[in-house]
C-alpha cells in the first residue's frame, strides 16, 4: 500500500470514529434540585415573554420547577404553540419519559403536560387539562401547524399527577398515575414524527384565561431516572432522651415486655 493510500485509509477511519462517537442526545433526567435551571440541558421557550420560570425549595426533597402563566392571556397549544416550556434535545429513537406534577389544575382550561417536537410546526402535545366537566388526559398531533385530537379521557382530579409517554416507532402511548407506581393507559395512537426535542410545559386558555402555576417535581427518562430523587432526605433526626441514656426498667426476675423511652 502506498503512502497516499495509507493516508486516505487513516482519514476514512478518522471520519468513522468521529461519527461513531457523536452524541445521540439520549434524553436526560432532571429532578430540578439545583438553585437554578440547568440551561446547558434545557432551552427555555417563552413565546409571550410573560411567563416566569423558577426553582422553588432548591436543595430540599420538595424542590420543583415552577412555570407561572398570568391570567388574561392565552398560553395555549392549539392555534400555534404559545405555551411556555423547557425543551431538551432528543434522539429520534424509541423512549419512555415521565413527569411528576405537584400542582392541581382547579380552574377551567389550566393545562400542564409534555411536548415532543420535530420542529415548531410538527409536534405532539400530551397533557392534563381542566374543562367545565373536570380533569382530562389529552393528546393531539400537529402536522404543518394543523392540529388533530387523538386522546381526550376524563379522569379523577388529583395531586400529585404523573404523566408518562412511551414511543415505539410511530406508536405513541399516554399513561397517567396518582402515585407513580400504578399506571393507567389513557390510550395509544399512530403518528410519524422525527423527534428532535422533548420537555414539559404549562398553559392556559379560555376567555378570560386563568392564571396558573405548574410545579414540576421531576422529568425522568425511565431508562435512567435519578435516585434518590432530589438527593433524598439527608438530614438526620435529632433525638433527645429524657432522664439520660442510662435507665433501668423492672427488676431482676420480673420480666417486662414493653418500655417507653421518654
Describe the protein's architecture and organization:
- With 262 residues, the protein is mainly β.
- Helix content is 7%, strand content 42%.
- The chain is built from 1 helix and 16 strands.
- It has one helix at residues 3-20; strands spanning 43-45, 52-56, 64-69, 77-78, 80-81, 85-89, 95-101, 110-119, 122-131, 134-143, 146-155, 161-168, 171-177, 183-190, 197-204, 212-221.
- The strands form 3 sheets. The protein has a 7-stranded antiparallel sheet, with no helix packed on it.
- Strand 4 (77-78) and strand 5 form a beta hairpin.
- Mean pLDDT is 89; it is low at 9-23.
How are the SSEs ordered, and which strands pair?
Layout: H1 3-20, E1 43-45, E2 52-56, E3 64-69, E4 77-78, E5 80-81, E6 85-89, E7 95-101, E8 110-119, E9 122-131, E10 134-143, E11 146-155, E12 161-168, E13 171-177, E14 183-190, E15 197-204, E16 212-221
Antiparallel strand pairs: 1-6, 2-3, 3-16, 4-5, 6-15, 7-12, 7-16, 8-9, 8-15, 9-10, 10-11, 12-13, 13-14
Could you give a quick summary of the protein structure above?
With 262 residues, this protein is mainly beta. Helices cover 7% and strands 42% of the residues. It contains one helix and 16 strands.
Amino acid at each position: 500500500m502506498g503512502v497516499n493510500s495509507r493516508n486516505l485509509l487513516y482519514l476514512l477511519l478518522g471520519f468513522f470514529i468521529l461519527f461513531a462517537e457523536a452524541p445521540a442526545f439520549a434524553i436526560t433526567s432532571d429532578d430540578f434540585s439545583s438553585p437554578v435551571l440547568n440551561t446547558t440541558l434545557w432551552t427555555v421557550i417563552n413565546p409571550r415573554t410573560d411567563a416566569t420560570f423558577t426553582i422553588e425549595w432548591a436543595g430540599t426533597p420538595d424542590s420543583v420547577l415552577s412555570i407561572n402563566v398570568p391570567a388574561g392571556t392565552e398560553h395555549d397549544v392549539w392555534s400555534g404553540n404559545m405555551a411556555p416550556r423547557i425543551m431538551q434535545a432528543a434522539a429520534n429513537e424509541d423512549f419512555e419519559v415521565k413527569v411528576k406534577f405537584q400542582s392541581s389544575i382547579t380552574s377551567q382550561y389550566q393545562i400542564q403536560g409534555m411536548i415532543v417536537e420535530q420542529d415548531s410546526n410538527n409536534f405532539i402535545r400530551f397533557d392534563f387539562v381542566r374543562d367545565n366537566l373536570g380533569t382530562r388526559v389529552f393528546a393531539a398531533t400537529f402536522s404543518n401547524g394543523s392540529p388533530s385530537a387523538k386522546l381526550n379521557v376524563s379522569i379523577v382530579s388529583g395531586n400529585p399527577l404523573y404523566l408518562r409517554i412511551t414511543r415505539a416507532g410511530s406508536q405513541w402511548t399516554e399513561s397517567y398515575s396518582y402515585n407513580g407506581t400504578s399506571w393507567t393507559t389513557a390510550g395509544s395512537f399512530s403518528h410519524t414524527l422525527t423527534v428532535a426535542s422533548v420537555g414539559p410545559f404549562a398553559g392556559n386558555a379560555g376567555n378570560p384565561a386563568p392564571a396558573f402555576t405548574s410545579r414540576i417535581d421531576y422529568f425522568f427518562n425511565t431508562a435512567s431516572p435519578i435516585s434518590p430523587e432530589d438527593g433524598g432526605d439527608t438530614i438526620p433526626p435529632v433525638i433527645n432522651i429524657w432522664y439520660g441514656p442510662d435507665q433501668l426498667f423492672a427488676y431482676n426476675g420480673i420480666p417486662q415486655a414493653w418500655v417507653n423511652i421518654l
